[in-house]
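I hope you will forgive my troubling you with a question about protein structure. The record follows directly beneath this note:
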Amino acid sequence: ALPISGASEGVWDSFGPKEQKDGYDLVKWAHRQAWSDGKVGLDGASYMGLNQLLTAAQHPPGLKAIFPIVPMADSYRDIVFSGGDINLSFIPLWMGLVAVGGVIPSPGAFDGDPTALLEDLSAIAQHITGLISFDAPALLDATTGGNTAYDGPFWTRRSPLQVVDRVRVPAFVMGGLHDLFQRGEPLIYERLRKHVPARLIMGPWNHLQGSMGQGLPGNGIPESLDQLELRWFDHWLQDRNSHVSRIPRVTQWAYGDNHFETQGQWPNPKFAPKRLYLRG
């Protein structure tokens, strides 16, 4: 997911404190609109998945349920420095696409309204300033051993796992075993299920496949991601009997057997840890 910022004002700072506050303000705004019944649900994949968690942790009024799909948990370990080495296969490409998206004019910018065009150009100028003040320095600092090359306050403020214990609304987490966030998705669920109604699906998916819910398992779970999301929100937002209780707490793809299996919890309570040693 890319933050295509169009003609919006301000400077993008990648999951930073101001952006997190925007999530709170957006839910609060929707909650108060005349066309709203006051109940708000959050849904979406990747960037929109992790932003749901960062928003829900602030307890905006009216928020009743979330459905984070392939969300990041720990920004330092899940995406930027996976295994301790900078992720050069993804980060520069993604940052480059974000930069391009930030300087794309909004639709209709050149339709003849000079005021709208000036507003667009002003916003794009701010976005270019952001490239100089945030994007380029952050990337350079990380690759040359600066502060952002190490775990610390910058990454802590941008990691949903740091605030997930504050979430107080039901959450349905979807992840993929080949997703770049596959480490963090079960960790998010494991923390959520201790204090809110929660569900977890881990499929044989990469990031894109997980975003689409490609090949859902059936057996009590709708085979369409849209239907699964509607079922979740019908229950928590519309007070309808959509049989959410019949959805297993954990559904995961089992390699070897090559099919989805369900279990009562994560980690699987049937498994007993065994300590192994590298030498005698």
